[in-house]
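Could someone model adenosine-5'-triphosphate with this protein?
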Amino acid sequence: MAKKKNDINKTQKKPFKLPSLKLSSQQKLIFGSFLIIFGTILFMAFLSFIFTGNADQSSLSDFASREVKTENWLSKSGAWLSDFFIQRGFGIASFIIAILIVLSGVYVLLNLNKTKLVSHWFWGMLSVIWLSVLFGFFGNSYDILGGTIGFEVNTYLQDYLGILGTVLLLVFGLIVYLAVRFKVTFESFTNIFNSAKSKIKDDFSNTNDNTEEPVIALDNNLSEEAAAIKSAFDIPLETDEPVLVKKETPKPVAEVAPLVVKTPVFDEDDEDDEDIKIEVKKVAEELSESNNLSDKLVADFGQFDPTLELSKYQFPPLDLLKKYDSEGITINQEELEENKNKIVETLKNYNIGIASIKATIGPTVTLYEIVPDAGIRISKIKNLEDDIALSLSALGIRIIAPIPGKGTIGIEVPNKNATIVSMRSVIASKKFQTSDMQLPIALGKTISNETFVVDLAKMPHLLMAGATGQGKSVGLNAVLTSLLYKKHPAEVKFVLVDPKKVELTLFNKIERHYLAKLPDSEDAIITDNTKVINTLNSLCIEMDNRYELLKNALCRNIAEYNVKFKERKLNPNDGHQFLPYIVLVVDEFADLIMTAGKEVETPIARLAQLARAIGIHLIIATQRPSVNVITGIIKANFPARIAFRVTSKIDSRTILDGSGADQLIGRGDMLFTQGNDLIRVQCAFVDTPEVEKITDYIGSQKAYPEAYLLPEFVGEESGTSLDIDIADRDKLFREAAEVIVTAQQGSASLLQRKLKLGYNRSGRLIDQLEAAGIVGPFEGSKARQVLITDLTALDRHLENEIL
Ligand SMILES: Nc1ncnc2c1ncn2[C@@H]1O[C@H](COP(=O)(O)OP(=O)(O)OP(=O)(O)O)[C@@H](O)[C@H]1O
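Reply:
Sure, complex below.
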């Protein structure tokens, strides 16, 4: 068994592989052009040698001497090279070598298939040898024809085979060459012969007006053999009328009979069979090509570039952002010492000894890490928070006991002079510039003065809370600015909800670049609460539509989907398109939830639960982080939270599930969490004039014809009660009825799938169908009963309704 396997392995030919010689583009240019020039030099020298070879004969021995003149076009080198290749080598067949060298140069330069080049060299050199041996016959009178090698090999062969034997050997060599190289067969010879013959015959018949007689006469003159060859060729030419005449003529019947037997047509058929085989192979190749249509498209047009429509778009330059004088941390040694002493003393007062203390200076706070003496309870230090704050006479002291993963206790003490973390410094940081995150946000700097960059796509939604005046709006602007500096308008769209009507208005200028809106709305920035509800529901429809696209494309998330689309594996005719990320920003969420309640909460919760995979991300900011604003369902779906300073411990608990936010010092001092650790960050500061400059810069550039349009949402006003007026029915009512009747299944999710609708609209459609008596009432988890049996009955039902 094993042996058999081995045999099989042996018989399986491994494809010939050239040793890979990797050349850089520059090396290819140098090497390729060298070969082309060298080959051309050889060619010119050889050509010149034919005329000047004799004259230069004598000068070759004095190659080194400058006085000796040569007549070759390429002087001494030309004369020497020609003598080497032609006189002492292969004779005039050496021209082929020059051509092969030029060809090699072209292959290297254009990076063509090297296996083909090897084949050219192999067959080229065989031709050189064959020709030089052939020309060797004339070596005595014209020695340059075959060169020394050709002459010597020829005479050697003649010694053993004689002239005739040598000629036959060369003919045999030629046959082998033609058969192997050009796949010439015996039939192709006969075909050439036949076609020549038929041409003569055609010419002959064309010159005679009376075609019938001479053809018969010609046939009569044919020998049996010749007639057979003729018929072999005539049969495929169906329009060849003289042949028909010949077949109908009774006279040559006797000849026709053996024709059928002897006719080489069958041989030709056999050959045809072989051709068919070859064609089958071709079909297979074509098939494989069509499978890799996307590869071909990518090879022809390159990957799809979503930024093409605004290919000249310029990202805002760094100069638009302000530099601050108070930037850069200055270490105030005195302050450090003073704080350290106070900490040590305070702890000593409570009998807590310290083994070591270390300080890390951040932009707003300094972290003192202490290692207490062995045997000290951590809770004891934690309880001293207020006492330490008192003794340091500073606001915003936070004790982290212990610092996760470090085994030390941290005491964060605000610096006397806080430094501003400018947006410019975080945007310019290497960490942000080189990040390959999908939606990178440079939030600010950590306590150890490192730039803090997070990926919104990973969060996947963000909840921001903080008392008024503590830096929320600046935080939102920092988030939006980060995305503007990193993402092309084709890659991200913002849906901005701003009930305060002032904070986000600046972004109006980039409406046609970066904003998304409802088809019928005038302003892209939403300030009206009813419009917010429509927009949120529209986003839900967009989400459902995107899920449908992802499902059809067999992708798990938007990143995979977009990669597939860029690789041209998804057909735009099937509704596929490049999907930009959508970032929904809601400022003053409290205001919204107070006025719209469940109507806002439901779509927000739905988006928060489901939208992460399809690239819709939510950022919600609120002043009042109370439980009736940040409800359980919202909290559960927003694992990433930012807390600016809040006024009470309760608020801190609502937003962070723990205290800490109440001990912040304000002005952009914040705590960030993504589920586990709390990270203290100084938010980057971006002022309104800076945002204005950025939006002006972007707004002045070429834009899309309009903002990114979200799917249309038919609002609740269209009614949900069961006594729905016929005129108020949804535009898709009839279609929905047909879907339900055809499937005999009264479910809203069926409509959602088939008509690509959102949850709410399909629910409303079902209500309307119920009101129209097409489906039965709601039956809990079961699908509703369909009361109409088929489409004809449905037509009748709807017609009666109108009457
Ligand atoms: N990151 C920061 N660095 C320095 N100063 C800041 C920072 N963030 C905010 N501030 C200061 O705090 C002030 C108020 O900030 P901001 O307008 O963002 O507060 P807010 O929380 O949005 O207030 P409101 O809820 O009333 O709109 C700013 O004008 C600025 O002076």
